[in-house]
Design goal:
Layout (H helix, E strand, L loop, with lengths): L2 E7 L4 E7 L4 E5 L6 H13 L3 E6 L5 H4 L2 H8 L3 E3 L4 H10 L15 E2 L5 E4 L2 E7 L8 E5 L4 E5 L2 E2 L2 E2 L9 H10 L9 E4 L5 E2 H7 L9
Parallel strand pairs: 3-4, 4-5, 5-6, 10-13
Antiparallel strand pairs: 1-2, 2-3, 7-8, 8-9, 9-10, 11-12, 13-14
Length: 216
Amino acid sequence: MIKIKNFVFNPFMENTYILYDETGECIIIDPGCYEKHEQETLSSFIAENNLKVVSLLNTHCHIDHVLGNAFVKNTYQVKLHIHRIDEAILKAVKAYAPNYGFAHYEEADVDEYLDEGDQVRFGNSILDIVFVPGHSPGHIAFYNEEQRICIGGDVLFAGSIGRTDLPGGDFNTLIESIHKKFFTMSDQMVVYTGHGPETTIGNEKLTNPFCAIKTA
């Protein structure tokens, strides 16, 4: 069974996730750890729980979700996986990182690409991938239907949605992704968001002011 550990890192208050199961293998999704104490928090949890990091994944490649990519790659000697379309977004981070106060940002190269229909495996666990552009052009999410968990990035939040005013963002595309991809999942699916608390598909269908499709 998949267990999920969440850390809130960097000034953007970004959610970094470690997913692991009974085998001790784990994956890291969207490492936002930039400061040394943040990196130590992440690595301490991994060491204290005797976990083996086998993969590094990005839901998308905005700065707040990739600040720790190089640290994770270098520390655990794992490959970085993203959607191909977001590679340009990732490469752009180095140019603007100093403007946000991240003067020592270290770039990490992409090793493999993921797309809808692919699967991520670790230990005894499997995550399916869904393509959900709109917040960024190459945004993907990772979910397990049996356990009803979804690592959703910046697509859908509790009572809100991802912003669409950044390069490559598009409001109509994002709403379409939510309606056609997320809202076709079980109402009991728990969405672990890129910022803020988790939510459920059913709750957002009913109450989200930007994309609800049901009436109370």
